[in-house]
Specification:
The chain has 283 residues and is an alpha/beta fold. 42% of the residues lie in helices and 18% in strands. It has a 5-stranded parallel beta sheet with strand order 3-2-4-1-5, sandwiched between helices. The protein has a 5-stranded mixed beta sheet with strand order 6-7-10-8-9. It is elongated.
């Protein structure tokens, strides 16, 4: 039995062909087969790069059926490169099924890092504290999108989304409704001829997009500031009120105040006065 081949996960340019790495070029030339999201698109890109390696399709609609066949070729000793239409495969693009199956089959998976719209947008945002989370594409349906954003509203980390041009205006409006006033980076057509990187408050984003139709064209990466840290005094006051609200359902004012003081660390007199206010009794 021959040794198994390697599955190379190869990042390709998101626009500017000059961004492809020498290692990626060498890998794409040496492998036996390239699994591509769109063989027509990829064949044009590869031709411009002087690469003639055979292509096979691996996209959203055939990945479940195509992945096992590719695993068999890898087991037979063939080396395969996985690419998407642009950027890093399996990041809001097909490929994760094949990669997961390769791991489960004991196939070596080797990433060839390179261009990524998410990384490019984050690096140009200046919004990195205390870290960042990549979400990818939000749900297309308005109700599902708003529900997803509501679940993220209290996240302290910078958030990164992808969005299509025909949904960008409504997406930005929903971001403002869910998150309130925060900084937003709109990164459009990154590395391409009409690249645009613009940072502004969320409250101004809808009007900024509406002012020029060209601002709504192209693929977008959005970087949104995380929830600002709340003042400790406000946080402690909210915690005390929540604790007293529960305790007062079961205990008299004085006992509820004593218990709240022990649970929250707040002063007993403060707990007692707030308990009286919540109960509606005179001080």
């Amino acid at each position: 039995m021959p040794d198994a081949g390697t599955l190379y996960v190869v990042a390709t340019p998101i626009g500017n062909l000059g961004d492809i790495s020498p290692r990626a070029l060498d890998t794409l030339r040496r492998v036996d087969l390239i699994a591509a999201e769109d063989t027509r698109h990829s064949s044009q890109m590869l031709a411009r790069l002087g690469i003639s390696t055979r292509l096979t399709a691996l996209h959203l609609h055939n990945e479940t059926e195509a992945a096992p066949r590719l695993i068999e070729q890898l087991r037979a000793g063939h080396h395969i490169a996985l690419i998407s239409d642009a950027g890093t495969p399996a990041i809001s693009d097909p490929g994760a099924v094949l990669v997961g199956l390769a791991h489960a089959s004991g196939i070596t998976v080797s990433p060839i890092p390179g261009p990524s719209a998410a990384l490019a947008a984050v690096s140009a945002s200046g919004l990195l504290h205390p870290g960042w989370l990549f979400y990818g594409f939000l749900p297309a349906r308005p109700a599902a999108r708003r529900s997803a954003l509501a679940a993220l509203a209290e996240t302290p980390w910078t958030l990164v989304f992808y969005e299509a041009p025909h949904r960008i205006a409504e997406c930005v409006a929903d971001l403002h409704a869910a998150f309130g006033e925060r900084q937003l980076l709109l990164a459009r057509e990154l590395t391409k001829l009409h690249e645009s990187v613009h940072r502004l408050p969320l409250s101004q984003a809808t009007d900024w997009l509406a002012a020029d139709e060209h601002r709504r064209m192209g693929e977008f990466a959005l970087v949104v500031e995380g929830t600002p840290p709340r003042d400790d005094t406000v946080r402690m006051a909210e915690q005390l009120e929540q604790t007293l609200s529960v305790l007062l359902d079961y205990l008299p004012v004085s006992q509820a105040a004593q218990a709240a003081a022990r649970l929250t660390g707040a002063k007993k007199n403060l707990c007692y006065q707030r308990a009286l206010q919540l109960r509606g009794s005179p001080s």
